[in-house]
Design brief:
The protein is α/β, with parallel strands linked by helices. It has 3 helices and 3 strands. Strand 2, helix 2 and strand 3 form a beta-alpha-beta unit. Helix 1 crosses helix 2 and helix 2 packs parallel to helix 3. The longest helix has 15 residues.
Length: 97
């Protein structure tokens, strides 16, 4: 896939509704992906307003700290996002040291 992606930091200070609005505007402008980066916030939780505001873009996390989530919570969050996105995608790359 080629195209332009938008990355929004979870610590941007933007409320979730505004993040959804930005994602919708990015989709209308032709962006093909919206990524949420985890800083001092929850990138996975912020995927929900993006999913609600978009239909075609790839939605995912630029960074999501797996150490902050117990495996069961991570699985439940992924399942909820899968339902919210329906035909979309959620990407999360993790690295352990």
């Amino acid at each position: 896939m080629t195209g332009l992606g938008l990355s929004i930091a979870s610590h941007s200070g933007l409320p979730p509704a505004r993040i959804g609005e930005l994602a919708g505007a990015a989709e209308r402008a032709g962006f093909s992906a919206v990524f949420l980066a985890e800083g001092h916030g929850d990138a996975l939780a912020l995927c929900h307003p993006v999913a609600a505001a978009t239909r075609r873009v790839l939605v995912g996390t630029a960074v999501a700290n797996a150490a902050l989530r117990p495996p069961v919570l991570a699985a439940k969050t992924a399942a909820q996002l899968d339902q919210a996105l329906q035909e979309g995608d959620v990407l999360a790359k993790t690295r352990s040291s």
